[in-house]
Amino acid sequence: AAPRQLSMGVVHGLAALTVAGMISVRCKRSIAWTLPLTVCLAMPMLLGLAMVKQLALVDALAWLVLFAAAAWLGYCAVRNHAAWHGMVKDVQAYVWTPALLCFVLLAVFWSYASQNRVPLDVDEYSYWATAVRSLYLSGGFTDGAHTCTYLHGSYPPGMHLLEWWGMHALGTWREGMLYTVCFLTNTVFMLPLMARITWRRGWVVPVFVISAIALPTVFTGFAYTMLTTDSTLGVLFGALLFTVWQARDNQTRFDDWMVAALLVAPVLTKRSGVLWAAGGLVLMGLLWSEGSLGVRIRRWLLIGLPATLVWLGWQSYCAMAGLSEVHDT
C-alpha cells in the first residue's frame, strides 16, 4: 500500500503544480500568484464534489490534468516548435522562480515538523479534526441527522476540504497531515510577496521562509498549537489587500480573477470571512478607478458575484441537509 500512497500523492501534487504552472504560462504571471489562486479554486471545486458525495473524483481530475498537460506539451514539441520554445521561456520566467523554491521548502518543513502531531485540544476533537474525519469516511458531507459535528454543522468547510485533499492524496489517515495542510495553506497565501523576486536576489528566500513561518503568530497566539482558521483568515485578508493595492494603478483581467478568487476563499474559511471579504471588496471599489462609473460598478459586481454565489450555495445546501450552527464566529 505504501508505494500506491506515494504514487497518488505525487499525482495530486503534480496536478496542483501543473494547474498553477499552466495558469502562470497562459497569463504570464509568477507562480507566486497562481499557487494561491489554485488553492482558492480548489475550495469551491471540492465543495461541489462533497455536496454530492463524490470527493473521490479528484483522482480522475488529477489524472485528467496531467494527461491534458502531457498531450499539449507533446503536440507543441512535435508540431509547433515556436509554441514549444515560447513555453520553455515562460516556464523559466514565471514558474521556475524563487517563489516556487520557497513553496517547496515550506512544504518539506511543515511535512517534517507536523508528522507526529495529533489533536489534543477539545475544539479539535469536537470539530476541527472530526469534520475532516467525517469527510474522509463518508466521501462527502453528511446531513444533519448523521453529522459528527452537530454544533458546527453549517460552519464553512474550506479548510476541512483542503485537509481532506491532503489526507486523500496521502492515502491513509495520518493526523499530522491535518496540521501540514493547515500550516502550508497559511504560508501559500504569503507567496505573492515573492512575485517580483528574481534569482539575483536569492538571498531573500531564507528570509521569506522564516518570516512566513513566524507571521501567522501575529494573528493569533495559538497559530501552531491547534487546528484553527484564524491565521488562515488573516493571511487571506492580507493577500486580498496586497492584490488590490498592487493593481490600484493598472488592473488586468488576471487581477479581476485573483481578487474574485480571494473573495471566495474567506467566505469558505470562516463564518466571519463574509465580513472580511466585504471589506476587501469595498477597498477595491475605492482604489480601482479605471473606466467610467458604470464600468467600475459592473466590474465590482462581477468580481463579487462568485463569492456571493458560493455563500448562497453553501447556505442553501445546509438548509436542505438540515445542518445548523451554534458557534457563530
What does this structure look like?
This protein is 70% helix and 0% strand. With 329 residues, the chain is mainly α. The radius of gyration is 20 Å and the shape is globular.
Residues in β-strands, percent = under 5%
Structural class: mainly alpha
Termini gap: 41 Å
Please count the beta strands (DSSP E, at least 2 residues each). Answer: 0
Q: How many helical elements?
A: 13
User: What is the ordering of alpha helices and beta strands?
Assistant: HHHHHHHHHHHHH
Q: Fraction of residues in helices?
A: over 70%
Radius of gyration: 20 Å
The major beta sheet can be summarized as:
none
Spatial shape = globular
Key terms:
329 residues; mainly alpha; 13 helices; 70% helix; globular
Question: In summary, what is this structure?
Answer:
The chain has 329 residues and is mostly helical. Helix content is 70%, strand content 0%.
What is the strand and helix layout of this fold?
Layout: H1 2-27, H2 31-51, H3 58-79, H4 81-95, H5 98-114, H6 122-138, H7 158-170, H8 176-188, H9 204-214, H10 230-246, H11 253-267, H12 273-287, H13 293-321
Helix pairs in contact: 1-2, 1-3, 1-7, 2-7, 2-11, 3-4, 5-8, 5-9, 6-7, 7-8, 8-10, 10-11, 10-12, 11-12, 11-13, 12-13
